[in-house]
Amino acid sequence: MKPLGKWLIAAAFAVALLIGGVLLLQRTTGGSVDSIAATSLQGLREQNRLSAFAARFVAVVTSEQSRFGFSARKTTIMPGMVRYEVDLSKLRDRDVTWDAATGTLAITLPPIEIAGPEVDLAGIREYDGGGLLMALTDAEKTLDAANRARGTADLRAQALQPVTMKLARDATRRAIASNFAMPLRAAGITATVNVRFADEGDAANTEPMDRSRAVENVIGNAAQ
Fold first, then answer.
1. Which of 69-73, 133-137, 193-197 has the least mean pLDDT?
2. Whole-number Cα distances in Å, 18 to 28, 157, 186
3. Which of 49, 85, 190, 220 is the most buried (most CB within 10 A)?
4. Residue 119: partners with Cβ closer than 8 Å, 6 or more residues away
């Protein structure tokens, strides 16, 4: 497994949000936490999907087949790329909460989704044995199909391992936290930004972002 780290899209997204969003907020809302967080949330939704982490894995699988007293065996080494994505369109108003007492902005993200694997066809290596059965029947085609299916399943299984999932979550957390923290910092607001995933089992940050106003009202006021 070779993690590839953050994608450039996260940095570009953060810079664009910082330059455009903060200037707009300072002109129209006075730079309040509510308004900045609400506008940042709206901007995240419009990004649709974020991929802040990717990793490359290699699957090694072997299939065998026997017919007419002969046997054939084939081993396939299959590399593939897996991307870890978050569907930002699923973010809800209540997924962003602001605790004025502690100065903490908490964001709850939808669970990480696996995209792929994208198999590197040029990198596939195959080793076989049982030339006679392969020459006389469609055994090689059958073994190839079996290895491709098993290899793809193995790549996904590797991608879902706890260590890799933690790396993906941490990279996504940093990217999302940066998108909220940078506009706040530029507006002169000191705040701690905490990011968690809905499937992590922590229900601590489920209160509305503003106890007196719903986020949709903040967005509506900012647009006026």
1. 133-137
2. 15, 37, 8
3. 85
4. 78, 79, 80, 148, 151, 152, 155
The C-alpha angle 62, 148, 141, rounded to 5 degrees, equals 80
Cβ atoms of 186 and 94 within 8 Å: the answer is no
What pTM was estimated for this model as a whole? 0.70
Buried b (16+ CB within 10 A) or exposed e, 47-69: beebbbbbbbbbbebebebeeee
- Name beta bridge partners: 154: none
Amino acid letter for position 104: T
Burial class for 6, CB neighbours closer than 10 Å (0-12, 13-18, 19+): middle
Q: Which amino acid is at 2?
A: K
What confidence tens digit (pLDDT) does each residue in 60-69 have? 999 988 887 7
